[in-house]
Amino acid sequence: MLKPEKWRQLLRLDAVLLMVAMVAGIAGAAFAARYLGAQAAATEASLRSRYEMRAVVVAAADLAQGEALDTTRLAARQIPRQFLSVDAVPAERAAELIGARTAMPIRRGTPVVAAALRRAADAPRLSSLLNGARRALTIAVDQVNSQSGNLMAGDLVDLYYSRNEGGGAYLIPLLQRVEVMATGASLASANVTQEPAGVERQFGTITLGLSATEAAHVLLAQQSGTVSVVLRSSEDQSEMPVVRQSSADLLPRNSKASAAKDRLEVLVGGNGGIVPERSWLPVGRSRPALHGESS
Most CB atoms within 10 A, among 36, 109, 188, 240? Predict the structure, then answer.
């Protein structure tokens, strides 16, 4: 049997061990909490960096190849950086894209990248499409003269000159089989992809390929009258006769009415009859002799 002194020693030893265990437990918990906090902070920082939102330029609608960019076709969106290409255009540089053209189709909501845009060097200069003494003349058109926007670079058109004169109007063919070099900013070139069918096209000018003399004729016609654009088939090789047509030619001629205008009705009374004598006097001729009158 242990002596009381021995019991007291054992109790003191147990108390010391318990205190050491408690201190070790508290220290371990503190270190574990600090470690877990550091790990959580590192993970949060990694996730924050990975999914950091950036404002970039995206397509506001489905864009076709060769389509010009404007404010209605672009928008700014917040997208996680992880899902962005390194050359995505930041939202603050959106103004730099106005007027550029797409080199490939871009789906709505897709970030606009430099690789999807046509480089300025890829677009031909208008002067490079001119050869010899050819001139490029740009004229204004409306929805009527642009065939409701269906006129395209490379089409052939006829130009008609009209003018009001003396209460009527006349029309004359001015130029025939004139090539349309550009509609707005769309050039006729094998290196430029035209807009696909179904895409709404809006432009207010067309550029025509003319000789220097033809260009002068069109400029003079614009100053003194109206120049109208008529689309023709590229396979049509016919030539319209250069004949002046008048608005008077549109009215049908009535032979009876015309004949009535060439004579004047004359009613003469005082011959004893109830009904006055009726005769016709041709315009420009003397009146025929009546009864009792000498010719």
Answer: 188
The pLDDT tens digits of the residues spanning 240-292 come to 888 888 888 887 665 555 555 556 555 566 555 565 666 665 655 555 555 55
Query: What tokens does 249 get?
Result: 């030619």
Structure tokens at 159: 């130009």
Q: Is the pTM of this model over 0.70?
A: no
Helices (H), 148-233: 212-224
User: Tell me: the pLDDT tens digits for 141-195?
Assistant: 888 877 777 888 889 999 999 999 888 899 999 999 999 998 887 776 534 444 4
For 80-86, the CB contacts below 8 A with 24+ separation are 80/50, 80/51, 80/52, 80/53, 80/54, 81/49, 81/50, 81/51, 81/52, 81/53, 81/54, 82/50, 82/51, 84/54, 84/56, 84/111, 85/111, 85/113
Query: What is the spatial distance between Cα 178 and Cα 156, in angstroms, rounded to a whole number?
Result: 5
Going from the C-alpha of 81 to that of each of 87, 92, 107, the distances in angstroms are 12, 16, 19
What's the alpha-carbon Rg for the chain, to the nearest Å?
A: 46
Beta bridge partners of 136: 209
